């Protein structure tokens, strides 16, 4: 996964609270292999009618080129399905800006190069208002933790380890394998002090 | 003497392999549970040509796509492909698989405890947010995404920042007809669906001590619906009795050593929590959701909120929820007609849940159709031995096989668009039970009451003169 430190793109607002993972990608699409692409399933049932036709007035349908999403509180709450992040990434999003995120979603996002930028509810409202239901060019700077949209300058918070990971595009498995000796030692120690932590032979 | 520690501190310390300068810990994983949805993670693993690091600590189960009827034929090619993929991955990596026809098959969060894979003091991961369920045993249990599942498969460890510690104390006695489900919906309604975000919740207090393991699991299961990735209860004699003699649980000398270690797994009296919440058990009523988030819940004898009278930041969300749910503001929630009922899921598909529902349904007929799906095939067997299945079928409900079923609809058990379902599950999200489906979350006894009257009903009226 390629890292990134700065992004310039079109921002679009979806000012709803609790956009949960079942809305981000309905369960029925989750058996699709990743290689097939998840972008078409993003917010599928909100964006499309029962026959699959796009609702012309839905913000994401009006502005398919957007890459920065300004959302409401508790974005990505619900399930651990990483497919919710795949759908956003495959639809071209690099950053979601919201007052709060589901914890598992936020971790999944970082693992896929998508920034979960936490801002105050007031700043989220200000960004939404500045967008007026349209799009505008915005920039996101991971180094400074700043979002700029027209005259608006908004600070976002992001865990330092996540910032580093996004910028470097690090993959945890490679990092962890550098610690394989420490892991092996820990495992042997646990075997000694807590042998009960290994499953008994199936009775 | 070391500084007073919370249960979270102790569990964390027991699993920490190392801590990076940025404060992220590498934790050892004692149990890793995988299911059909783990296909992305297995694909990542094979893309790198890596083996599963600890197949002896990794267990696989068919649950999300498990058909609840006609299991001998997998008619739907997508469902068949999901199940076959898991079977292939389990075989390729030498994992113990609880397959579709295994007599111990069931929902991952039901069979983990049932099989003794879930124990106090363990760190348990699964690519499923309701992994918090296993915290009921005093375990560090949390859901992870596919990238993290691949990481655990490859290394048997997980990177994690230690969450803040939060304690929810529930003191006093619960009223009749009030269950662990109601405790959970009550606190989520009070604190919000993100109220415990960033926290690990430890449940304490006399009402929690009084809960069975089933009740504790229901409570910990729903922690994620309040934003907490972890829910936990300190283990006690109730826990130790439940764990005893389970197939994979420690025996003999190992059990003695385990009991000694497990008895230390309590928050020290002076330990400080980052947040404390206190709830009077006696003030909790049977609770139901009216909206599309678990925080949109209220006592069954209350009225549906009027968005016009809510603070502005909640009004728009409430209006959208009422519109989706087809409800009128300001009307009593009780009396809302339902089209169908569902009893099951990892929240409320255990034997005690089925007993509570059967206690209400015994000798009565359901006015609406519905399904009862036990959380595991062992729960199914036990329920049949107790005659509960005959109570359900005599009432006119369908008695089917074990799996996630109508909780998420992946196996085809769906609620049709516009239909209203009284459900013992954990998510009332838009479209969760099917596109356009209207879900009201409530306890199994409350679902049974809704079945009997055909509308949302205060179960207490139907329990009068009956033992719950
Ligand atoms: S029963 Fe529902 S909540 Fe539980 S694991 Fe299955 S789909 Fe998830």
Automatic annotation (TrEMBL), chain A:
Report the top EC class in one word.
Answer: lyase
Q: What is its EC number?
A: 4.2.1.33
This protein's GO cellular component annotations are: 3-isopropylmalate dehydratase complex
Keyword terms, alphabetized: Amino-acid biosynthesis, Branched-chain amino acid biosynthesis, Leucine biosynthesis, Lyase
Identify the pathway: Amino-acid biosynthesis; L-leucine biosynthesis; L-leucine from 3-methyl-2-oxobutanoate: step 2/4
Please give one Pfam family short name.
Answer: Aconitase_C
Return one Gene Ontology term, BP aspect.
L-leucine biosynthetic process
Q: Which Gene Ontology MF annotations are present?
A: 3-isopropylmalate dehydratase activity
Stretches assigned to the Aconitase A/isopropylmalate dehydratase small subunit swivel domain: 7-120
Catalysed reaction equations from the record: (2R,3S)-3-isopropylmalate = (2S)-2-isopropylmalate
Instruction: List the coiled-coil residues.
Output: none
Which family does the record claim for this protein? Belongs to the LeuD family. LeuD type 1 subfamily.
Query: How would you summarize the oligomeric state and partners of this protein?
Result: Heterodimer of LeuC and LeuD.
Tell me the protein's name: 3-isopropylmalate dehydratase
Natural source organism: Marimonas arenosa
From TrEMBL, chain B:
- Write the Enzyme Commission number(s) for this entry: 4.2.1.33
Decide whether keyword Cytoplasm is in the record.
no
Keywords in UniProt for this one?
Answer: 4Fe-4S, Amino-acid biosynthesis, Branched-chain amino acid biosynthesis, Iron, Iron-sulfur, Leucine biosynthesis, Lyase, Metal-binding
What's an example of a GO molecular-function annotation for this chain?
A: 3-isopropylmalate dehydratase activity
Q: Where is the Aconitase/3-isopropylmalate dehydratase large subunit alpha/beta/alpha domain?
A: 9-454
Record field: catalytic activity? (2R,3S)-3-isopropylmalate = (2S)-2-isopropylmalate
**Pathway(s) per entry:** Amino-acid biosynthesis; L-leucine biosynthesis; L-leucine from 3-methyl-2-oxobutanoate: step 2/4
Instruction: Tell me the cofactors it needs.
Output: [4Fe-4S] cluster
Q: Tell me the GO BP annotations in alphabetical order.
A: L-leucine biosynthetic process
Instruction: Write down how the cofactor binds this protein.
Output: Binds 1 [4Fe-4S] cluster per subunit.
Q: Which PROSITE patterns match?
A: ACONITASE_1 (PS00450), ACONITASE_2 (PS01244)
Q: At which positions is [4Fe-4S] cluster bound?
A: 346, 404, 407
Q: This protein's superkingdom?
A: Bacteria
Q: How does it assemble?
A: Heterodimer of LeuC and LeuD.
Described purpose of this protein according to its UniProt entry? Catalyzes the isomerization between 2-isopropylmalate and 3-isopropylmalate, via the formation of 2-isopropylmaleate.
Q: Which family does it belong to?
A: Belongs to the aconitase/IPM isomerase family. LeuC type 1 subfamily.
**Name of the featured protein:** 3-isopropylmalate dehydratase large subunit
* Organism, as annotated: Marimonas arenosa
């Amino acid at each position: 996964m390629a890292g990134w430190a700065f992004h310039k793109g079109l921002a679009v607002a979806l000012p709803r609270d609790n956009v949960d993972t079942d809305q981000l990608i309905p369960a029925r699409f989750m058996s699709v292999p990743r290689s097939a692409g998840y972008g078409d399933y993003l917010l599928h049932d909100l964006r499309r009618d029962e026959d699959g036709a796009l609702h012309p007035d839905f913000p994401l349908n009006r502005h398919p080129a957007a890459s920065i999403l300004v959302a409401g509180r508790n974005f990505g709450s619900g399930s651990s399905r990483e497919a919710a992040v795949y759908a956003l990434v495959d639809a071209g999003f690099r950053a979601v800006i919201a007052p709060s995120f589901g914890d598992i979603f936020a971790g999944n996002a970082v693992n896929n190069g998508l920034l979960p930028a936490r801002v105050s509810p007031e700043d989220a409202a200000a960004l939404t208002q500045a967008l007026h239901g349209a799009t505008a060019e915005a920039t996101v700077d991971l180094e400074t933790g700043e979002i700029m949209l027209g005259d608006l300058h908004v600070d976002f918070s992001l865990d330092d380890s996540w910032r580093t990971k996004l910028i470097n595009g690090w993959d945890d498995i490679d990092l962890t394998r550098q610690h394989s000796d420490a892991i092996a030692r820990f495992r042997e120690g646990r075997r000694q002090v807590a042998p009960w932590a290994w499953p008994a032979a199936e009775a | 003497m070391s500084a007073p520690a919370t249960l979270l501190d102790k569990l964390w310390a027991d699993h920490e392999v190392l801590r990076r300068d940025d404060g992220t810990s590498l934790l050892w994983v004692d149990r890793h549970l995988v299911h059909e949805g783990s296909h992305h993670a297995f694909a990542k693993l094979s893309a790198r040509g890596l083996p599963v690091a600890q197949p002896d600590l990794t267990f696989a189960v068919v649950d999300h796509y498990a058909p609840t009827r006609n299991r001998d034929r997998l008619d739907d090619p997508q469902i068949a492909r999901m199940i076959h993929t898991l079977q292939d991955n389990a075989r390729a990596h030498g994992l113990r698989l609880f397959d579709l026809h295994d007599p111990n098959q069931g929902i991952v969060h039901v069979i983990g405890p049932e099989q003794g894979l879930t124990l106090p003091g363990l760190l348990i991961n699964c690519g499923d947010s309701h992994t918090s369920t296993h915290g009921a045993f005093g375990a560090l249990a949390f859901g992870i995404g596919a990238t993290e599942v691949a990481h655990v498969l490859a290394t048997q460890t997980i990177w994690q920042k230690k969450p803040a510690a939060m304690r929810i104390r529930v003191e006093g006695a619960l009223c009749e007809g009030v269950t662990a489900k109601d405790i959970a919906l009550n606190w989520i309604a009070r604190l919000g669906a993100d109220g415990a975000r960033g926290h690990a919740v430890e449940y304490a207090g006399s009402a929690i001590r009084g809960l069975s393991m089933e009740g504790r699991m229901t409570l910990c299961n729903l922690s994620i619906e309040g934003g907490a990735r972890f829910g936990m209860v300190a283990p006690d004699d109730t826990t130790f009795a439940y764990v005893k003699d389970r197939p994979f649980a420690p025996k003999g000398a190992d059990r003695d050593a385990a009991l000694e270690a497990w008895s230390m797994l309590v928050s020290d009296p002076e330990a400080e929590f980052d947040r404390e919440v206190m709830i009077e058990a006696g003030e909790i009523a049977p609770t139901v959701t009216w909206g599309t988030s678990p925080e949109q819940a209220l006592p069954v004898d209350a009225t549906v909120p009027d968005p016009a009278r809510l603070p502005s930041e909640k009004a728009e969300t409430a209006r959208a929820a009422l519109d989706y749910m087809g409800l009128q503001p300001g009307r009593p929630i009780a009396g809302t007609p339902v089209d169908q009922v569902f009893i099951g899921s990892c929240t409320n598909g255990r034997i005690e849940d089925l007993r509570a529902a059967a206690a209400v349904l015994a000798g009565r007929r359901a006015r609406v159709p519905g399904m009862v799906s036990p959380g595991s095939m062992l729960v199914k067997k036990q329920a049949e031995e107790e005659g509960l299945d005959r109570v359900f079928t005599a009432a006119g409900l369908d008695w089917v096989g074990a799996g996630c079923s109508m909780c998420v609809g992946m196996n085809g058990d769906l609620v049709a668009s516009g239909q209203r379902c009284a459900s013992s599950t954990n998510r009332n999200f838009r479209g969760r039970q099917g596109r356009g489906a209207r879900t009201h979350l409530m306890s199994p006894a409350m679902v049974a009451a809704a079945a009997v009257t055909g509308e949302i009903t205060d179960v207490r009226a139907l329990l009068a003169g009956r033992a719950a």
